From TrEMBL:
It catalyses: ATP + protein L-histidine = ADP + protein N-phospho-L-histidine. It is a multi-pass membrane protein. SMART domains: HAMP, HisKA. One of its GO terms (molecular function) is phosphorelay sensor kinase activity. The keyword Cell membrane applies. Residues 183-235 form the HAMP domain. It holds the Pfam family HAMP. Transmembrane segments: none annotated. This is histidine kinase. Its EC number is 2.7.13.3. Residues 250-448 form the Histidine kinase domain. One of its GO terms (cellular component) is plasma membrane. Signal peptide: none annotated.
Length: 449
């Protein structure tokens, strides 16, 4: 049996695979982004243009908010919004602000004659330290100051780019890879949906596609089994309908002949077209015979309708062979002997347990008795013997048939009724008709003691 690979396991694998694919794409995208930004910002004019743009934005910010060089909080707010920007302000050789310094960039605010001994590390020679940075002049509310501004464009754009890439990875790449990996299952489900719609439309010949080893496969297998069962039911119903149609046609013919004869004889009597009272009595006897023949036809038809109406036969508890057949066989033999037939019974000593419906068994033997009276040759013995095949046992009836049937009309209902009742008891009815011989074998289910 093929090991089942459940949907939960498959989807977990798809999630892991989609995550790995997304992380790989994110890593490759970050490497490409880093190389592109390094190449772009390695150009001097690009870096200068980006720095000048930051200086212009700072000047606009100072002018808009009427800032003085001592407004440390506002300057720090502006710097913190630009994580990769270093800003230092100088008045002469004195550093009055640095975004890199602690306490919100506050260095010192000295009078013009302050000295480095009074405030160490404040008076600096900026020409030696930042000679590679251009110096810009900014206009504050309290005068002009010199500004040293270093803008790391690579880190700024790389950080923003990584955030965008991470958002794409979570919102688009991961779901996209997951859907891409699950497209096989989705296509299979869509295919099953189309095949189910075809089944709804009555197409039961097209098989349901069975692929894989998961829960969807199990569902598809069950659907295909249901399709096969429905098709078998349709075929059985069609066969039953055809059988009923043929039966109606045959019964119509069988009824028409005796009815026509019956009407003819009644017309003779009604209009006194007979010559002697004995002739009238003869016609009455013929009318009686035809009426009984019609009654037999209707009884057989009713029997067949009664059997085919029952969808399920209620089987009796397991009973021994002798218990099931002793009484009905005795009645059958007595009836046949009264009609001039000789019976030979070979029942053996086996007394197996059978699963049967006692009511159906009596009906079957009654039908067999009726057929034997009509068609069996009284000059030959009727053989009834016990038979057993594997897990089944029953009776075999064998007789020689008359060259010309005693009755001119046959209902052809008795044998189908017997076959139907045997099927409902899950038994077997086997009919063989070699030259001049009729053999019927009835096999019932057996139960081990």
């Amino acid at each position: 049996m093929k090991k089942q690979n459940g949907l939960a396991k498959q989807f977990m694998g798809m999630i892991v695979l989609a995550a790995l694919e997304s992380v790989l794409l994110l890593t490759v995208s970050q490497v490409v982004l880093a190389k592109g930004l390094r190449f772009w910002f390695s150009r001097t004019e690009v870096q200068q243009h980006a720095t000048q743009k930051q200086v212009q934005e700072l000047q606009s910010y100072v002018t808009e908010h009427h800032l003085a060089s001592t407004d440390v909080k506002e300057l720090t707010d502006w710097s913190h919004k630009r994580r990769y920007t270093l800003l230092e302000l100088y008045r002469g050789q004195t550093m009055i602000y640095s975004s890199f310094a602690p306490k919100d960039g506050m260095i010192s605010f000295l009078p013009q004659n302050g000295t480095s001994d009074q405030n160490p590390g404040v008076l600096v020679d900026k020409t030696g330290v930042y000679d590679w940075l251009p110096c810009y002049t900014l206009t504050f509310a309290d005068g002009e100051v010199s500004a040293m501004l270093y803008y790391n464009g690579f880190n700024t754009y790389y950080g923003t780019g990584c955030e965008i890439l991470l958002s794409l990875c979570i919102l688009w790449w991961f779901p996209g890879f997951f859907l891409l990996n699950s497209r096989k299952i989705v296509r299979y489900v869509v295919q099953l949906s189309e095949e189910i719609q075809a089944m709804e439309g009555g197409d039961l010949d097209h098989p349901i596609t069975i692929r894989g080893s998961d829960e969807v496969t199990t569902l598809a297998s069950c659907l295909d089994s249901m399709r096969v069962t429905l098709r078998q039911q349709q075929e059985e119903e069609a066969q039953a309908a055809a059988k009923v149609k043929n039966l109606i046609t045959e019964m119509s013919h069988d009824l028409r002949t005796p009815l026509t004869t019956l009407l003819l004889y009644t017309e003779i009597l009604q209009y006194h077209k007979y010559e002697t009272p004995e002739q009238a009595d003869n016609y009455l006897n013929k009318i009686d015979a035809k009426a009984r023949q019609i009654k037999q036809l209707s009884d057989n038809l009713f029997e067949y309708a009664l059997v085919t109406r029952d969808t399920v036969a209620v089987l009796d508890p397991p009973a021994h062979f002798s218990t099931v057949f002793e009484e009905p066989l005795t009645e059958m033999v007595e009836t046949l002997q009264q009609r001039g037939f000789a019976c030979a019974l070979e029942l053996g000593e086996e007394d197996v347990l059978l699963l049967v419906s006692g009511q159906y068994v009596r009906r079957i033997l009654d039908n067999i008795t009726s057929n034997l009276v009509k068609y069996a040759d009284p000059c030959s013995d009727i053989l009834v013997r016990f038979v057993q095949e594997e897990d089944r046992a029953g009776l075999c009836f064998k007789n020689r048939v008359l060259p010309v049937p005693a009755s001119s009309e046959s209902t052809k209902v008795g044998l189908p009724s017997i076959e139907t009742m045997m099927e409902k008891m899950q038994g077997i009815c086997r009919i063989e008709q070699p030259e001049g011989i009729f053999r019927m074998t009835l096999l019932f289910q057996t139960v081990k003691e």
